[in-house]
Known about the structure:
Largest sheet: 6 strands, antiparallel, barrel
Distance between the termini: 16 Å
Number of strands: 6
Number of helices: 0
Order of helices and strands: EEEEEE
Structural class: mainly beta
Helix content: under 10%
Radius of gyration: 11 Å
CATH superfamily: predicted glycosyltransferase like domains
Mean pLDDT: 89
CATH class: Mainly Beta
Number of domains: 1
CATH architecture: Beta Barrel
Amino acid sequence: xxxxxxxxxxxxxxxxxxxxxxEEGLCVLTAPTDALKQGRSYHLLMVLSRSQxxxxxxxVRHVTDGLVGLRTQERFxxx
Length: 79
């Protein structure tokens, strides 16, 4: 299962799909971009359903061609 993700950058929005999510982070598939920098934090929205969205701030831990590994500042709570 994967979920849509929107990165809210200064002047643009970057779209992706969360492929792997844990309590402390996520791996997002995106189009290749130079907009996300390792070590910087960004605000993002993960859409779980029409009525449920997770909003958080996450630090970029690694970036490859189209994959971004992020560590969230707050733990995700799965119930």
